Amino acid sequence: MGDEKDLRKSPLENLHRRMGARMTVFAGWEMPLQFKGIVEEHRAVRWAAGIFDVSHLGRLFVTGPDAESLLRRAFTFDVARLGHGRGHYALLCREDGGIIDDLFVFRLEEGRYLVAGNAANADRDRDQIARLVEAGMTVRLDDRQAQTVMLAVQGPQARGRLSEALGRDLIERLPRRGCTEFELLGTKAFVSRSGYTGEDGFELITSVTAGRALWEGLVAGGMQPCGLGARDTLRLEAALLLHGADIDTSTDPFEAGLEWVVDLGGDRWFVGKEALLRRRERGPERRLVCLRAATGGIMRAGHAILRDSEVVGALTSGGFSPTLGVSIGMGYVPVALSEEGTRLDVDVRGKRLAAEVVGRPFYRRPQ
Amino acid sequence: MTESPKDLKYTREHEWVRLEDGAAVVGITDYAQEQLGDLVYFDLPEPGTELRQFEKLGEAESVKAVSDLFAPLSGEVIEVNESARESPEIVNSDPYGEGWLVRMSVADFSELEKLLTAEEYDALIAAESEE
């Protein structure tokens, strides 16, 4: 991490400070950790709606006649499966199958895609895609991170509240994982029905001016502003992975339970395919499991996972679940210990905390 | 920032002490609960545990982080606040009242002189907040 002068700031920073946000540094960005408190913000998203400033996330528009063939070479997921106005979770892997980033790819129209990845990996993602551009390809990579604001509006009331703010039809018609572009305060804006909280929700990319107006309007209307603290507890309850913690270049999609986003069939080549075919053949030695603690103590990332007195793994994420009222976490353990119901211990700073392997996710929103 | 209650003594680690009938009631300060955020678990010593001044008393876990708690005085734990154990959020809402943590005997009253007054503690947190 660079020194403080190198920190990137959201264009909405002054709004956050005025709301009394406590700020934190994450992936080289200074962003809100919390406004009212992590638990209150978490509950607002589970039961009503909350708005997050996620302007630190990467957003790369890939445009041109060869955009599809370029992205088919980049991701484990085959973007040819995407209909117009649809998005999907995808992985960018190295030649050896290690995960460079997990992201969302949206197909806006013929020859026009949006790739939304993690803040810390935005440059790496762009470079990885750029190096796959071959001579003769007509494609443009347009990194819009610096010129735009990205907002996430999440929760059971997100659809209704955003419909009112943006004009009912646009939002009401958008299917799950659908996306579209529209005009907002005179500029082109992007909206998708997606998110990373386990709730129905929307993500918007728009100009700084429009983003500021939208944030202010929704918050003035009573929507809870939320910080990265609640974003982390929400995604953990939904067992959504965090790159740099649960997955990274040293993990592959199979051990992380992400085989559903790896298309190995057909003759499509993509970076890492040969390695992933071999890894699938061999099968993973360890698996990412969800662990739920008995009461008494909070397990956190880095804590050792024990079977009897033997260390069998470590937590990659961990914390308190506001919805369940106990500590939850994820970590890699040998396949033989990955069955639901397996009883393990977690070393919480020298004390043993009993935990059990449970189904994924920890929390699923009522249908 | 609101001023800390004048009738308490404080540690540099953000615990407070109130003398009641010759025993000491211990908790964490309003500033500490504010900094920690939503409290979700306390690891506190059982009655009978001997504590030494400024040594570790237990742990406070918030959604965000874990923080060690330190004994403001030497003595023996007499009582633990079960309400704070069962509902840690009361420490957020009432750190100087319902949210007390342990009651302990006082082995040596002269140790009180090593603690901070409310004015000294307020100056300390004012300096910390500026950092």
Outline the structure in words.
The complex is a heterodimer of chains A (367) and B (131). Chain A is α+β, with helices and mostly antiparallel strands. Chain A contains 9 helices and 20 strands. Chain B is 23% helix and 33% strand. Chain B is built from 4 helices and 9 strands; from the N terminus they run E-E-E-H-E-E-E-E-E-H-H-E-H. The interface between A and B is medium-sized, with 18 and 11 residues.
List keywords for this structure.
heterodimer, A: 367 residues, alpha+beta, 6-stranded mixed sheet, 6-stranded antiparallel beta barrel, 9 helices, 20 strands, 34% strand, globular, B: 131 residues, 6-stranded antiparallel sheet, 3-stranded antiparallel sheet, 4 helices
Low confidence ranges of chain A: none
**How many helices of chain B does DSSP assign?**
4
Major sheet: arrangement of strands of chain B: 1-2-3-9-8-5
Strands in their spatial order, largest beta sheet of chain A = 11-12-13-10-4-14
**Could you tell me the strand content of chain B as a percent range?**
25-35%
Mean pLDDT score of chain A = 96
Share in helix of chain A: 10-25%
Largest interface, with Cβ-Cβ < 8 Å? A-B, 18 and 11 residues
**What structural class do helix, strand and pairing data of chain A support?**
alpha+beta
End-to-end span of chain B in angstroms?
A: 15 Å
Number of DSSP strand runs of chain B: 9
Point out poorly predicted stretches of chain B: none
Fraction of residues in β-strands of chain A: 25-35%
Instruction: Please summarize the sheet with the most strands of chain B.
Output: 6 strands, antiparallel
**What is the oligomer described by this structure?**
heterodimer
- What sort of overall outline of chain A do the alpha carbons produce when their principal axes are compared? globular
Gap from first CA to last CA of chain A: 42 Å
